[in-house]
Amino acid sequence: MTLTSKSFEIFCGTGGVGKTTLATARGIALAKAGKRVLLITIDPARRLKDLLGLSGDQVGEVVPVEVIGVKLHALLMSPEKTILRMSQKYQKPDLATNRIVQILSRPYGGMNEILSLVEVQMQFETGSYDVVVLDTPPGAHFLDFLESLSKIRSFFDQNFMEIFSYLGQKTAQAGKKVFGRGIINRFISGGVRKLLSYLEAVTGGQFIDDFIQAVQIIYQSKDAFMKGLSLQDRLKSPRECNWFLVTSVEQGKASEAIELRSHAGHFIHQDHFLVLNKCLAKDLETWTPTDLKMKAVKKSLTDNEQDLKGLLRNVFPMVLEFPEVISLSPIEHLKHLTEKWNSYASQS
Ligand SMILES: Nc1ncnc2c1ncn2[C@@H]1O[C@H](COP(=O)(O)OP(=O)(O)OP(=O)(O)O)[C@@H](O)[C@H]1O
Ligand SMILES: [Mg+2]
Questions:
Q1: 24: pLDDT strictly greater than 90
Q2: Which residue range(s) make up the domain with 322?
Q3: Atom of ligand 1 nearest to the CA of 246
Q4: Which of 24, 26, 42, 47, when mutated, tests ligand 1's pocket best, judged by the most ligand atoms within 8 Å of its CB?
Q5: Rounded to an integer, what distance in angstroms lies between the CA atom of residue 142 and that of residue 259?
Q6: 127 occurs within a structural domain
């Protein structure tokens, strides 16, 4: 089994299995080995914020951090800040000021997943990092993240492209003038027109104007969105991306991991790693209970873990094991798990 670092390292898995902790430890291990690391989290629980001791106004910014004596960069995704960066980078100030775009880019606003990809792409493009470690949100949200790749594609699909390119030509002819709704009306179906006139009655004309402007602005920024899409091929390549599907030695978690892989199988390449977190077997070996009840507990825990490992090794070709760190301190967790990453890297 070879574990060499790649440009992109993605951690996914269901809720509470240790994605954020392991992604952080991985980032630290790589930085310690001399890599320039950016750790990005799109975890809505914001655990990384606590782990790294970041303050509220640092959310959404790339921040240099020092954890257990190791320096790296971290970014807690904030879709609003990503939109702002996009508008600056691509010189589209309207992107940051349009009210509809602002609503769409709020947390849970519908554009978060697309924006995460655009962010990863923009950050990698700076050339400042050797590795971008990405900690994703749990289970279903992670699938949304992957699906966003095809969402972008369908958003800019043929029909939209026709309307947009027509609007684009007209906009070019008319200079910077914002387009009236007459053009939209000619191109959209009766149903959508009805919906727009209903919305206009309810919300007033401004909403429709903002909406039309939002469509145009998004169209004008399509290159930035499509660049996010180009990341898809890189993430699918075993040369460029390590996928870590994380699970833990807890009831039901392994079957969730198997299910997740089957749903995400067309995105995650074949050479992915299954990471089994919170293993107890090593500690159990040195535990020598004397009373019968505790002996039974030990046997049950040991057997359970062994069965689980057997099951997972049948399904996943590459399994990495990480111990349950017996401590309440998150920093202790990071120290031990970083060492474990180092030991895997030195085996290859
Ligand atoms: N190997 C470990 N040993 C002991 N505790 C651990 C280990 N890995 C993670 N934990 C603990 O388990 C809890 C969940 O970890 P973490 O937040 O990293 O999971 P997650 O998969 O990112 O969760 P979420 O799905 O909510 O994002 C935390 O309290 C963390 O400190
Ligand atoms: Mg997390």
A1: yes
A2: 8-153+232-281+307-347
A3: 21
A4: 47
A5: 13
A6: yes
